[in-house]
Amino acid sequence: MNKKQFIDYFNYEDNNLISNIYDKILLHERVNNPIYLNEFYSPNIWKKLLDLTGKIGCKIGTYGIFEESDRRFISILSDYDDYEFYNYPVKLLNIINMSAFSKLKHSDFLGALMSLGIKREKFGDLIVDKDECYVPVCSDIVEFIQNNLIKIGKNPCKVKILNHYDKNQIPKYKFQEKTIVVSSCRLDSIVASLGGISRSNSEDMIKKGLVLLDYEKVIRKDIHVEINSIITLRGYGKFKIKEFLGRTLKGREKIIIKKYI
Q: RNA-binding S4 domain: which residues (predicted)?
C-alpha cells in the first residue's frame, strides 16, 4: 500500500497526521524496532489502522490506560514483538480540586488543560469522579502540567502522578444507560432523541458542525449509525450506541445508549 492509498483509506481531514503515521510505519520497516507514536488518536484513526493489520507489513497496538478508552496511543510492532503497555510514553495524572466550596465539571478540567497551550492530542480521555480528574498524558508534558496547573478558575488544585500499572488506581468510566425509541437509525433521528430536540433542530446542529460521529464532523443527516458509534453533541454530551433491540409494533427502532457522565 503506497502513501496515497493509505491516506485515501482514512478519508481524514488532516492528511498530514495520516501521512506521519505512514512515515512511522516505513521507519519501523527500516529499523525493525517497536515505534511508539507520541500522541493520542481517536477511534476513527486507530480502529481503521487495526483493520489494516496484515496489509501494511506490521502489527498495531493501542493503549489508552482506561478500559474502553476512546483516545489511545498507537504502537507499530513486528509480528514477533510482545505487546507491552509499560513501554508507552504515557503517565496517568490525578488532578484534585482543593476547594471545598466550588465544584468542577469535566469541561472545567478539559478547559484548564487546553488553556495551558497543550494540544488536544497530547492527552487522552478524562474521567471525572467527584472533585478529581484522571487523565493520561504524554510523558514529555507531565512536568509542565505539574508546574503550571495550579488553579482551575479560582479553585486551587493539586496534580499527582499515579501508577497506571496498578489496576486499583485506574478509575472506570461512568455511564447513564437508557433506551431510546426513534423512527430510524439515521443520524438526525438519533440526535433529536439524544438531545430531546426536534428533528429540524437536529438537522440544524448537524449542518452547523455541532455533531461529531466517531470524532468526525458530519454534514449528511441520513448517515446510518452503527453499534459502538460515538456521538458527541455540543452542549449535550457524549453518547455511545450499545445495542439495537429491534423494532416496536409500530415499526420504530429501540436502541440502548450509554451517556458518558
A: 185-250
